[in-house]
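If you are new to this repository, start here. Below is one unmodified record pulled from the training split, so you can see the exact layout before writing a loader.
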Amino acid sequence: MVKGAASGSMAFRFVLLMGMVDLFGDTTYSGGASMNGLFLASVGAGAAVISIAGGLSEFLNYLTRGLSGYFADRIRRRWPLVFVGYVLNLLAVPALALAGHWQVAAGLIVVQGVGRGVRKPLVQAMLSYTSSRYGKGWVYGVNTSLDYAGRTLGPLVVAGVLLLTTEFRTAYALLVIPAMLALITLTMARIRFPAPSAFESPEQQHQAEVTEGFTRSYWLYLAAGACFAAGLMNFELISFHLSRSGVTRDSVPLFLALATAIGALASLGLGKLYDRVGLPVVLVAVVATATFSPFVFLLPVHLALVGMVLWGIGQATQDSLLTALVAGVLPRGRRNLPFGLYYAGYGVGWLVGAVAAGLLYERSHIALVAFAAVAQLLSVPIFLTARRRPEPRPAEWSSG
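And here is the target side for that same chain:
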């Protein structure tokens, strides 16, 4: 019993340590994202280029997750790929301080997405080894909330730098500090927890050796996630619109900070509710998110704050609830590839949505809003079709 309790304590320390990695990492990434759209515009990019660059970055982020998961399952070594992903993701952000043309800046934004794609499914798979003790919703909710704490801090730091200096390049350069802190913390996690699979009991590890195929529910969740992604616009386009609507460039990052702060709180609350209630929590969150775009693109700019709150709930839904759903239908014996394939499908939806949003923005804001809302609401009947039976409660997963 003592051994099991100690193992459980160590498992939660792993969850927290990886959450700290993401806190520092997303301080870097989100700090850059809060001004990427404005920076691209300052070096000559238009609305379509800004939206497509952000969308392509996210698409490659999700597409690379499929490839990363496949290779991790083949070579059976996660940590080296995780380090490669974080290095690409984090160091490309301060490198934007050196970009003199929009083509170079757009390329570095794409590199950020590739780096996130390499490391994300592997980290999610490692965290899944702790979910039998704490519940999928809670594990991914804690990780996402720390991730979002960084996403809140980054834009606040950038807003402060822009207020004092008005220089994008200075703000990008200062983001090398949280980037290095993330890599140092990741190294500590690697040394302290070289084999996260050890958090599962011998019985669970034996079950994991039995390989199963992909279920119908898994593919339906993938399709539903792609629809949801198509309507969840990237902040590059949102920030461009806010600046056109009269929001000063040092204030634009504060909108992202608000959204991510809401996302951090929502991740914890929604994660706990998901472990108790299940799919209905996901459906409510999806419907709420589908109402964000009118507040941002059609109503007076002060009401965009309401839209960003709803957009933040959408980010939490994407990163914690949908991840928990997929974790509940993973084929036994496979973790990296299924997560990677799911994210690749999600990325296809994101790219389609980004291209459509960029093109519709210059033609009709009403059409843009209609597209975003309909795309996300289409996921609801697919989620309902995928549901077969309630998932077992966390107590049933426990090996204790």
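Two things worth knowing about this chain: The longest helix spans residues 2-42. Confidence is low (pLDDT under 50) at residues 1-6, 205-211, 389-400.
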